[in-house]
Amino acid sequence: MNSRFLPFRRKRGTKVTYEVTGTGSFEVTYAVGNPLQGEQKEVKAGVAPWKQDVVMSGIDAMPMLTIITSNPDHPDGWLQCTISIDGELAVEGAVSSRSASATFTALPGATG
Predict the structure, then answer these.
(1) Cα–Cα distance between 3 and 6 in angstroms, integer?
(2) pLDDT at 2 over 60
(3) CA distance linking residue 95 with residue 29, whole number of Å
């Protein structure tokens, strides 16, 4: 089995970096382990630029970021979201508008 996702099995863990750039404010939930088991954290009043590093390990680890924009005064606001694994870009995407939401997940083989 050849997958870039395998580093999460290491006991020392794998560095995951979540980043949001652009304009506007947002709420974000990001995984610190297995989000399906509630292993996540929340930021209620985020402002770009925002960055968070976490160390994940275990076969259930799943890098996931959910963002909800809240830009009533900036209808043209946009936010660029990225997830990097051990310094390699795994996922990137953007959300824009006064009110939008998106979820970004790094799937097996997402880097490289």
Answers:
(1) 6
(2) no
(3) 15
How far is the C-alpha of 77 from the C-alpha of 28, rounded, in Å? 16
Residues 62-83 pLDDT 10s: 899 999 987 666 666 788 999 9
Instruction: Round to whole Å and give the CA distance between 72 and 31.
Output: 27
Whether the per-residue pLDDT at 108 is higher than 80: the answer is: no
Residue 2 phi/psi, 5-degree rounding, is -110, 105
Paired strand residues for 29 = 42, 66
The SS3 assignment for 3 reads coil
| Domains of the chain and any CATH numbers | 6-105 (2.60.40.2880)
